[in-house]
Structure prediction request, 264 residues.
Amino acid sequence: MSLFPQLAPGRELERGETLAPRFDASGLIAAVAVDADRDEVLMLAWMNAEALALTIETGQAHYYSRSRQALWKKGETSGQVQTVVELRVDCDQDAVLLKVRPQGDGGACHVGFRSCFYRVVEDGRLVERPLP
Amino acid sequence: MSLFPQLAPGRELERGETLAPRFDASGLIAAVAVDADRDEVLMLAWMNAEALALTIETGQAHYYSRSRQALWKKGETSGQVQTVVELRVDCDQDAVLLKVRPQGDGGACHVGFRSCFYRVVEDGRLVERPLP
Prediction:
């Protein structure tokens, strides 16, 4: 049984009211989490249908780990639970955008920075420059 | 010949200076484009190694269209060229974040909104609410 309806490409998919996320061949959709209060991109992760449904139902971000091949409630071990303030989909419904309030230490990245995107590409090299 | 070096998971991948993007089994990496002046998430798209190399080389965003299976310079037909102000990678280098200045009409979405994420999920339905 499918958790979400399916829509073919077209006007209903792009302008309609029906949430019909388009999961890829692996059953996943890309999810971008942004800090609701700072408008900073925190992380990019993946959701399967169950993770997306749980995120909507509980108001806390759930993802799917491609490496561990398992559903994953963000913060379950780290305490960096993400309270979802707003959930958006893009035009062709193959990506979701979450505005979240990170709990715990306020971070989202296992390395210790608030955002996973703490490195800038400069002259072909990576430079650590976390946002202030 | 590979355009980028490869690194195994570990400290060098997460904290080192080497740009070693980890493309998935299809040879793609997720790319999030944010408006450099508004901190608004504009779109999520895909890059193959060539698209990423061209983006770095030219300073203009190139993507890979999964549906058309072709390299794609953003704005080539729409005029919505994206000048890249900053390029970041995430902790495990399987996602990139671009801060861009959209040219042309200033938008990024083919539907006509500035951002592709113009719909919010509310009570299980989609509501169009583009950012002001």
